[in-house]
Write a structure and sequence with these properties.
The radius of gyration is 28 Å and the shape is globular. It is of the alpha+beta class. Helix 6 runs antiparallel to helix 7 (248-278) and helix 10 packs across helix 11 (382-392). The protein is built from 13 helices and twelve strands. The protein has three domains: 27-198, no CATH class; 203-283; 306-435, Neutral Protease, domain 2 (Orthogonal Bundle). The chain has helices at residues 2-29, 80-93, 105-129, 133-136, 201-207, 212-241, 248-278, 291-303, 314-328, 368-380, 382-392, 403-418, 422-435, and strands spanning 31-40, 46-56, 67-71, 141-145, 151-152, 156-157, 169-172, 190-193, 199-200, 282-283, 332-333, 346-347. A four-stranded mixed sheet has the order 3-4-8-7, with helices on one face. Strands 1-2 form a two-stranded antiparallel ribbon.
Protein backbone atom coordinates (compact mmCIF):
# COMPACT_ATOMS: atom_id res chain seq x y z
CA UNK A 1 0.00 0.00 0.00
CA UNK A 2 2.86 2.30 0.90
CA UNK A 3 4.55 1.56 -2.42
CA UNK A 4 1.32 2.29 -4.29
CA UNK A 5 0.97 5.57 -2.43
CA UNK A 6 4.60 6.49 -3.12
CA UNK A 7 4.18 5.62 -6.79
CA UNK A 8 1.05 7.76 -6.98
CA UNK A 9 2.89 10.70 -5.42
CA UNK A 10 5.80 10.22 -7.83
CA UNK A 11 3.44 9.98 -10.79
CA UNK A 12 1.64 13.15 -9.76
CA UNK A 13 4.96 14.91 -9.26
CA UNK A 14 6.12 13.88 -12.73
CA UNK A 15 2.85 15.02 -14.29
CA UNK A 16 3.12 18.33 -12.45
CA UNK A 17 6.69 18.77 -13.67
CA UNK A 18 5.70 17.92 -17.24
CA UNK A 19 2.77 20.30 -16.98
CA UNK A 20 5.03 23.06 -15.74
CA UNK A 21 7.46 22.44 -18.59
CA UNK A 22 4.61 22.41 -21.08
CA UNK A 23 3.22 25.65 -19.73
CA UNK A 24 6.68 27.14 -19.76
CA UNK A 25 7.09 26.06 -23.34
CA UNK A 26 3.73 27.55 -24.31
CA UNK A 27 4.60 30.75 -22.50
CA UNK A 28 7.94 30.87 -24.26
CA UNK A 29 6.32 30.46 -27.67
CA UNK A 30 3.59 32.99 -27.04
CA UNK A 31 5.44 35.92 -25.50
CA UNK A 32 3.92 39.26 -26.46
CA UNK A 33 5.40 42.71 -25.93
CA UNK A 34 4.26 46.17 -27.01
CA UNK A 35 6.59 48.25 -29.19
CA UNK A 36 6.22 51.44 -31.18
CA UNK A 37 5.76 50.88 -34.93
CA UNK A 38 4.62 52.84 -37.99
CA UNK A 39 0.89 52.42 -38.64
CA UNK A 40 -1.31 53.85 -41.36
CA UNK A 41 -4.21 56.14 -40.50
CA UNK A 42 -7.58 56.13 -42.26
CA UNK A 43 -6.63 59.22 -44.29
CA UNK A 44 -3.59 57.44 -45.74
CA UNK A 45 -1.11 59.21 -43.49
CA UNK A 46 0.93 57.54 -40.77
CA UNK A 47 1.68 57.72 -37.08
CA UNK A 48 3.97 56.06 -34.57
CA UNK A 49 1.82 53.93 -32.27
CA UNK A 50 2.27 51.11 -29.77
CA UNK A 51 1.32 47.68 -31.10
CA UNK A 52 1.80 44.17 -29.68
CA UNK A 53 4.50 41.98 -31.20
CA UNK A 54 3.15 38.49 -30.68
CA UNK A 55 4.93 35.16 -30.75
CA UNK A 56 8.32 36.54 -29.66
CA UNK A 57 10.89 34.02 -28.45
CA UNK A 58 11.65 36.47 -25.63
CA UNK A 59 10.36 39.88 -24.62
CA UNK A 60 13.63 41.60 -25.50
CA UNK A 61 14.40 39.66 -28.71
CA UNK A 62 13.12 40.49 -32.20
CA UNK A 63 12.46 36.95 -33.35
CA UNK A 64 9.33 34.85 -33.94
CA UNK A 65 8.63 31.45 -35.47
CA UNK A 66 8.62 33.10 -38.90
CA UNK A 67 11.30 35.83 -38.79
CA UNK A 68 14.59 36.71 -37.15
CA UNK A 69 15.76 40.33 -37.22
CA UNK A 70 19.53 40.82 -37.24
CA UNK A 71 21.91 43.75 -37.58
CA UNK A 72 23.87 44.04 -40.83
CA UNK A 73 25.91 40.85 -41.42
CA UNK A 74 25.41 39.44 -37.93
CA UNK A 75 23.64 36.11 -37.42
CA UNK A 76 22.50 36.55 -33.81
CA UNK A 77 18.99 37.80 -33.12
CA UNK A 78 18.78 41.52 -32.44
CA UNK A 79 17.99 42.12 -28.76
CA UNK A 80 17.49 45.23 -26.67
CA UNK A 81 20.95 44.76 -25.12
CA UNK A 82 22.56 44.45 -28.56
CA UNK A 83 20.70 47.55 -29.75
CA UNK A 84 22.14 49.52 -26.82
CA UNK A 85 25.63 48.29 -27.75
CA UNK A 86 25.16 49.24 -31.41
CA UNK A 87 23.98 52.72 -30.46
CA UNK A 88 27.00 53.20 -28.21
CA UNK A 89 29.38 51.93 -30.91
CA UNK A 90 27.79 54.28 -33.43
CA UNK A 91 28.48 57.26 -31.18
CA UNK A 92 32.14 56.30 -31.03
CA UNK A 93 32.87 55.01 -34.53
CA UNK A 94 30.52 57.14 -36.65
CA UNK A 95 30.14 60.24 -34.49
CA UNK A 96 31.16 62.57 -37.34
CA UNK A 97 29.32 60.72 -40.12
CA UNK A 98 25.88 62.28 -40.83
CA UNK A 99 24.76 59.02 -42.45
CA UNK A 100 24.58 57.29 -39.06
CA UNK A 101 23.78 60.31 -36.89
CA UNK A 102 20.20 59.20 -36.17
CA UNK A 103 21.08 55.57 -35.41
CA UNK A 104 20.44 55.84 -31.70
CA UNK A 105 18.83 53.07 -29.63
CA UNK A 106 15.31 54.46 -30.06
CA UNK A 107 15.59 54.55 -33.85
CA UNK A 108 17.09 51.06 -34.15
CA UNK A 109 14.46 49.61 -31.80
CA UNK A 110 11.72 51.30 -33.84
CA UNK A 111 13.14 49.87 -37.08
CA UNK A 112 13.45 46.35 -35.66
CA UNK A 113 9.94 46.33 -34.23
CA UNK A 114 8.49 47.86 -37.40
CA UNK A 115 9.92 45.31 -39.84
CA UNK A 116 8.91 42.41 -37.60
CA UNK A 117 5.38 43.73 -37.00
CA UNK A 118 4.65 44.32 -40.69
CA UNK A 119 6.42 41.16 -41.89
CA UNK A 120 4.15 39.16 -39.59
CA UNK A 121 1.12 41.01 -41.01
CA UNK A 122 2.17 40.04 -44.53
CA UNK A 123 2.79 36.44 -43.45
CA UNK A 124 -0.72 36.25 -41.94
CA UNK A 125 -2.25 37.57 -45.16
CA UNK A 126 -0.71 34.78 -47.23
CA UNK A 127 -1.44 32.01 -44.72
CA UNK A 128 -4.87 33.09 -43.46
CA UNK A 129 -6.39 34.96 -46.40
CA UNK A 130 -4.81 32.97 -49.27
CA UNK A 131 -4.22 29.69 -47.39
CA UNK A 132 -0.81 29.42 -49.04
CA UNK A 133 0.80 26.08 -48.25
CA UNK A 134 4.09 27.37 -49.68
CA UNK A 135 4.20 30.20 -47.15
CA UNK A 136 3.15 27.92 -44.28
CA UNK A 137 6.16 25.73 -45.08
CA UNK A 138 8.65 28.60 -45.32
CA UNK A 139 11.78 28.38 -43.24
CA UNK A 140 12.45 31.17 -40.75
CA UNK A 141 13.32 34.27 -42.79
CA UNK A 142 16.27 36.42 -41.73
CA UNK A 143 15.61 40.17 -41.92
CA UNK A 144 18.74 42.31 -42.05
CA UNK A 145 18.77 45.96 -41.02
CA UNK A 146 21.18 48.63 -42.29
CA UNK A 147 23.03 46.22 -44.58
CA UNK A 148 24.97 48.12 -47.25
CA UNK A 149 26.68 45.14 -48.90
CA UNK A 150 25.76 44.33 -52.47
CA UNK A 151 24.36 40.82 -53.00
CA UNK A 152 26.70 38.20 -54.44
CA UNK A 153 25.27 34.89 -55.63
CA UNK A 154 28.65 33.30 -54.89
CA UNK A 155 29.35 34.72 -51.41
CA UNK A 156 26.01 36.24 -50.29
CA UNK A 157 27.77 39.44 -49.16
CA UNK A 158 29.96 41.30 -51.63
CA UNK A 159 33.01 43.12 -50.30
CA UNK A 160 32.14 45.91 -47.85
CA UNK A 161 33.69 48.56 -50.08
CA UNK A 162 32.15 47.35 -53.35
CA UNK A 163 29.27 49.62 -54.40
CA UNK A 164 27.61 50.18 -50.99
CA UNK A 165 23.81 50.17 -51.28
CA UNK A 166 21.40 52.72 -49.80
CA UNK A 167 17.75 53.76 -50.09
CA UNK A 168 16.40 50.38 -51.20
CA UNK A 169 15.41 46.91 -50.04
CA UNK A 170 16.14 43.46 -51.44
CA UNK A 171 14.86 39.89 -51.15
CA UNK A 172 17.36 37.11 -51.84
CA UNK A 173 16.97 33.41 -52.51
CA UNK A 174 18.63 30.57 -50.65
CA UNK A 175 22.10 29.74 -51.93
CA UNK A 176 25.53 28.41 -51.13
CA UNK A 177 29.02 29.84 -51.63
CA UNK A 178 31.10 28.92 -54.64
CA UNK A 179 33.87 27.81 -52.29
CA UNK A 180 32.61 26.96 -48.78
CA UNK A 181 35.01 27.95 -46.01
CA UNK A 182 34.83 28.69 -42.29
CA UNK A 183 32.32 31.45 -41.69
CA UNK A 184 30.92 31.28 -45.24
CA UNK A 185 28.30 28.56 -45.60
CA UNK A 186 24.87 28.07 -47.19
CA UNK A 187 22.13 30.60 -46.53
CA UNK A 188 18.33 30.63 -46.66
CA UNK A 189 15.97 33.25 -48.08
CA UNK A 190 16.48 36.69 -46.55
CA UNK A 191 15.17 40.26 -46.73
CA UNK A 192 17.66 43.12 -46.65
CA UNK A 193 16.78 46.69 -45.70
CA UNK A 194 19.36 49.31 -46.64
CA UNK A 195 19.96 52.47 -44.61
CA UNK A 196 18.68 55.77 -45.90
CA UNK A 197 21.17 58.18 -47.41
CA UNK A 198 20.18 61.74 -48.17
CA UNK A 199 21.15 62.52 -51.76
CA UNK A 200 21.28 66.29 -52.49
CA UNK A 201 19.29 66.36 -55.72
CA UNK A 202 19.22 70.16 -55.82
CA UNK A 203 23.01 70.37 -55.65
CA UNK A 204 23.46 67.65 -58.27
CA UNK A 205 21.05 69.35 -60.68
CA UNK A 206 22.81 72.67 -60.13
CA UNK A 207 26.09 71.14 -61.29
CA UNK A 208 24.63 69.72 -64.49
CA UNK A 209 24.88 71.71 -67.72
CA UNK A 210 21.10 71.43 -68.08
CA UNK A 211 18.24 70.27 -65.88
CA UNK A 212 17.20 66.80 -67.21
CA UNK A 213 13.53 67.80 -67.11
CA UNK A 214 14.24 70.92 -69.15
CA UNK A 215 16.21 68.79 -71.59
CA UNK A 216 13.17 66.53 -72.02
CA UNK A 217 10.97 69.59 -72.61
CA UNK A 218 13.40 70.84 -75.24
CA UNK A 219 13.38 67.43 -76.95
CA UNK A 220 9.57 67.37 -76.89
CA UNK A 221 9.53 70.82 -78.47
CA UNK A 222 11.94 69.67 -81.15
CA UNK A 223 9.64 66.76 -82.00
CA UNK A 224 6.18 68.32 -81.66
CA UNK A 225 6.69 71.78 -83.16
CA UNK A 226 7.92 70.57 -86.58
CA UNK A 227 4.92 68.22 -86.72
CA UNK A 228 2.51 71.11 -86.15
CA UNK A 229 4.34 73.36 -88.63
CA UNK A 230 4.41 70.58 -91.22
CA UNK A 231 0.68 69.98 -90.74
CA UNK A 232 -0.07 73.69 -91.16
CA UNK A 233 2.12 73.83 -94.29
CA UNK A 234 0.35 70.84 -95.86
CA UNK A 235 -3.07 72.27 -95.03
CA UNK A 236 -2.05 75.58 -96.61
CA UNK A 237 -0.81 73.87 -99.79
CA UNK A 238 -4.01 71.86 -100.02
CA UNK A 239 -6.16 74.95 -99.46
CA UNK A 240 -4.19 76.89 -102.09
CA UNK A 241 -4.60 74.04 -104.57
CA UNK A 242 -8.34 74.04 -103.92
CA UNK A 243 -8.44 77.87 -104.03
CA UNK A 244 -9.87 77.86 -100.51
CA UNK A 245 -7.36 80.02 -98.63
CA UNK A 246 -10.15 82.43 -97.69
CA UNK A 247 -12.58 79.72 -96.62
CA UNK A 248 -13.91 79.56 -93.08
CA UNK A 249 -12.73 75.95 -92.73
CA UNK A 250 -9.11 76.77 -93.60
CA UNK A 251 -9.01 79.84 -91.38
CA UNK A 252 -10.52 77.88 -88.50
CA UNK A 253 -7.95 75.10 -88.99
CA UNK A 254 -5.00 77.51 -88.97
CA UNK A 255 -6.34 79.30 -85.89
CA UNK A 256 -6.75 75.98 -84.06
CA UNK A 257 -3.20 74.91 -84.94
CA UNK A 258 -1.82 78.24 -83.80
CA UNK A 259 -3.77 77.89 -80.57
CA UNK A 260 -2.43 74.36 -80.09
CA UNK A 261 1.17 75.59 -80.38
CA UNK A 262 0.50 78.40 -77.91
CA UNK A 263 -1.07 75.94 -75.45
CA UNK A 264 1.90 73.57 -75.80
CA UNK A 265 4.37 76.38 -75.19
CA UNK A 266 2.36 77.52 -72.18
CA UNK A 267 2.37 73.96 -70.83
CA UNK A 268 6.14 73.70 -71.34
CA UNK A 269 6.71 76.94 -69.40
CA UNK A 270 4.42 75.77 -66.58
CA UNK A 271 6.26 72.44 -66.43
CA UNK A 272 9.56 74.26 -65.97
CA UNK A 273 8.22 76.08 -62.93
CA UNK A 274 6.40 73.05 -61.50
CA UNK A 275 9.52 70.94 -61.98
CA UNK A 276 11.50 73.26 -59.69
CA UNK A 277 8.78 73.13 -57.04
CA UNK A 278 7.87 69.41 -56.92
CA UNK A 279 11.36 67.91 -57.13
CA UNK A 280 12.64 67.53 -53.55
CA UNK A 281 15.99 69.05 -52.68
CA UNK A 282 17.04 65.74 -51.14
CA UNK A 283 16.14 62.15 -51.92
CA UNK A 284 16.05 59.49 -49.20
CA UNK A 285 14.20 56.27 -48.45
CA UNK A 286 14.25 54.49 -45.09
CA UNK A 287 12.85 51.22 -46.39
CA UNK A 288 12.59 49.56 -42.97
CA UNK A 289 10.11 52.24 -41.89
CA UNK A 290 7.66 52.06 -44.81
CA UNK A 291 5.00 49.35 -44.26
CA UNK A 292 4.24 48.79 -47.96
CA UNK A 293 7.91 48.19 -48.78
CA UNK A 294 8.03 45.50 -46.09
CA UNK A 295 4.89 43.90 -47.56
CA UNK A 296 6.41 44.12 -51.05
CA UNK A 297 9.62 42.35 -50.06
CA UNK A 298 7.82 39.57 -48.21
CA UNK A 299 5.54 39.15 -51.23
CA UNK A 300 8.65 38.40 -53.28
CA UNK A 301 9.50 35.68 -50.75
CA UNK A 302 5.94 34.32 -50.80
CA UNK A 303 5.98 34.11 -54.61
CA UNK A 304 9.56 32.87 -54.90
CA UNK A 305 8.75 29.19 -55.44
CA UNK A 306 7.60 30.24 -58.92
CA UNK A 307 8.84 33.80 -59.43
CA UNK A 308 12.41 34.19 -58.27
CA UNK A 309 13.36 37.63 -56.90
CA UNK A 310 16.76 37.63 -58.63
CA UNK A 311 15.66 39.94 -61.46
CA UNK A 312 13.57 43.08 -61.35
CA UNK A 313 11.03 42.90 -64.19
CA UNK A 314 7.70 44.71 -64.70
CA UNK A 315 5.71 41.51 -64.04
CA UNK A 316 7.78 40.39 -61.04
CA UNK A 317 7.64 43.80 -59.36
CA UNK A 318 4.01 44.36 -60.33
CA UNK A 319 2.90 41.08 -58.75
CA UNK A 320 4.73 41.96 -55.51
CA UNK A 321 3.20 45.45 -55.64
CA UNK A 322 -0.30 44.00 -55.97
CA UNK A 323 0.06 41.79 -52.90
CA UNK A 324 1.71 44.61 -50.94
CA UNK A 325 -1.34 46.73 -51.77
CA UNK A 326 -3.62 43.85 -50.80
CA UNK A 327 -1.95 43.47 -47.39
CA UNK A 328 -2.19 47.23 -46.89
CA UNK A 329 -5.76 47.22 -48.24
CA UNK A 330 -4.85 50.29 -50.27
CA UNK A 331 -3.69 50.72 -53.89
CA UNK A 332 -1.36 53.54 -52.85
CA UNK A 333 2.12 52.41 -51.90
CA UNK A 334 4.77 54.38 -49.98
CA UNK A 335 2.83 57.65 -50.08
CA UNK A 336 2.27 60.31 -47.39
CA UNK A 337 5.27 59.19 -45.36
CA UNK A 338 7.71 62.01 -46.04
CA UNK A 339 9.57 61.62 -42.75
CA UNK A 340 11.02 58.39 -44.14
CA UNK A 341 10.69 58.79 -47.89
CA UNK A 342 10.76 61.45 -50.60
CA UNK A 343 10.07 58.82 -53.26
CA UNK A 344 6.89 59.40 -55.26
CA UNK A 345 5.34 56.03 -54.36
CA UNK A 346 2.91 54.10 -56.56
CA UNK A 347 -0.80 54.35 -57.26
CA UNK A 348 -2.83 51.32 -58.31
CA UNK A 349 -5.83 53.49 -59.10
CA UNK A 350 -4.18 54.70 -62.30
CA UNK A 351 -5.84 53.40 -65.45
CA UNK A 352 -2.98 53.52 -67.92
CA UNK A 353 -3.16 52.23 -71.49
CA UNK A 354 -0.55 49.62 -72.41
CA UNK A 355 2.53 50.77 -74.34
CA UNK A 356 5.42 48.61 -75.51
CA UNK A 357 7.97 50.54 -73.47
CA UNK A 358 6.28 49.23 -70.31
CA UNK A 359 7.86 45.82 -71.06
CA UNK A 360 11.41 47.13 -70.61
CA UNK A 361 13.45 46.50 -67.46
CA UNK A 362 13.76 50.25 -67.06
CA UNK A 363 10.01 50.35 -66.38
CA UNK A 364 10.12 47.57 -63.75
CA UNK A 365 9.26 50.07 -61.02
CA UNK A 366 6.35 51.67 -62.86
CA UNK A 367 2.85 51.18 -61.45
CA UNK A 368 1.25 49.91 -64.68
CA UNK A 369 1.05 46.24 -63.64
CA UNK A 370 -0.10 47.22 -60.15
CA UNK A 371 -2.92 49.27 -61.67
CA UNK A 372 -3.76 46.53 -64.18
CA UNK A 373 -4.08 43.87 -61.48
CA UNK A 374 -5.82 46.13 -58.98
CA UNK A 375 -8.44 46.97 -61.59
CA UNK A 376 -9.42 43.30 -61.75
CA UNK A 377 -10.99 43.75 -58.31
CA UNK A 378 -13.63 45.96 -59.93
CA UNK A 379 -14.26 43.34 -62.62
CA UNK A 380 -14.43 40.16 -60.51
CA UNK A 381 -14.66 41.34 -56.93
CA UNK A 382 -11.91 41.71 -54.33
CA UNK A 383 -11.55 38.09 -53.15
CA UNK A 384 -12.03 36.38 -56.54
CA UNK A 385 -9.51 38.74 -58.16
CA UNK A 386 -6.94 38.21 -55.40
CA UNK A 387 -7.31 34.42 -55.65
CA UNK A 388 -7.05 34.61 -59.44
CA UNK A 389 -3.85 36.66 -59.35
CA UNK A 390 -2.29 34.47 -56.66
CA UNK A 391 -3.04 31.42 -58.80
CA UNK A 392 -1.45 33.11 -61.82
CA UNK A 393 1.98 32.90 -60.16
CA UNK A 394 2.12 29.20 -61.06
CA UNK A 395 2.19 30.08 -64.76
CA UNK A 396 4.77 32.87 -64.52
CA UNK A 397 8.55 32.89 -64.53
CA UNK A 398 10.80 35.77 -63.64
CA UNK A 399 12.89 36.01 -66.79
CA UNK A 400 10.48 34.88 -69.52
CA UNK A 401 7.10 36.32 -68.54
CA UNK A 402 6.21 39.64 -70.14
CA UNK A 403 3.01 41.63 -69.69
CA UNK A 404 1.18 41.28 -73.00
CA UNK A 405 1.73 37.52 -73.35
CA UNK A 406 2.99 35.97 -70.12
CA UNK A 407 0.83 37.82 -67.61
CA UNK A 408 -2.30 37.75 -69.79
CA UNK A 409 -1.94 34.00 -70.40
CA UNK A 410 -1.25 33.32 -66.71
CA UNK A 411 -4.40 35.17 -65.65
CA UNK A 412 -6.57 33.29 -68.13
CA UNK A 413 -5.08 29.92 -67.19
CA UNK A 414 -5.51 30.67 -63.50
CA UNK A 415 -9.16 31.47 -64.15
CA UNK A 416 -9.77 27.88 -65.23
CA UNK A 417 -9.50 26.76 -61.59
CA UNK A 418 -9.75 29.97 -59.55
CA UNK A 419 -12.83 31.56 -61.12
CA UNK A 420 -16.35 30.81 -59.93
CA UNK A 421 -17.63 30.73 -63.52
CA UNK A 422 -14.57 30.26 -65.77
CA UNK A 423 -16.35 30.85 -69.10
CA UNK A 424 -18.10 34.02 -67.96
CA UNK A 425 -15.14 35.37 -66.00
CA UNK A 426 -12.65 34.71 -68.81
CA UNK A 427 -14.85 36.80 -71.11
CA UNK A 428 -14.92 39.59 -68.52
CA UNK A 429 -11.13 39.42 -68.14
CA UNK A 430 -10.68 39.44 -71.94
CA UNK A 431 -12.80 42.57 -72.27
CA UNK A 432 -11.04 44.30 -69.38
CA UNK A 433 -7.57 43.57 -70.78
CA UNK A 434 -8.61 44.78 -74.23
CA UNK A 435 -9.86 48.01 -72.70
CA UNK A 436 -6.40 48.45 -71.15
CA UNK A 437 -4.64 48.02 -74.48
CA UNK A 438 -3.75 44.33 -74.22
Amino acid sequence: MKNLYSNKILKNALLAALGALTLAGLGYAAVSENYDVVVRKKNGGYEIASRPLEGLIARDAFETDHFRVVWKKEEETLTLDRIAQIAEETKTIHKDDPLWADRDADRIRLMAANVLYHAEAAHRFFTDRLASEDVKKLEKIVIRLDLTNKYSQFERFANDNYQPQYNNALSIEAGKPLKPRPGVGPWQREIWFRPEKKIPIGEILAQLPEDPANAQIREARAELYPMQIDLAFRNTLYAAFQSRLDSAGYIDSIVRQGGTMLLMEGAFQVLKVVNRVIIPQKFYLETAMVPEIIYHEFSHIALSDYMHPDLSTPVNEGMADFFAASVADSPKLAKKIRAYSTAVGKNGNKRQFFQMELETLGKAQSDYVLGLLWGLRDVLGEKPATNLIFGARKFLTTKDSDIRTGLVTALLRSCETACESPLRDRMLIHQYLQDRGL
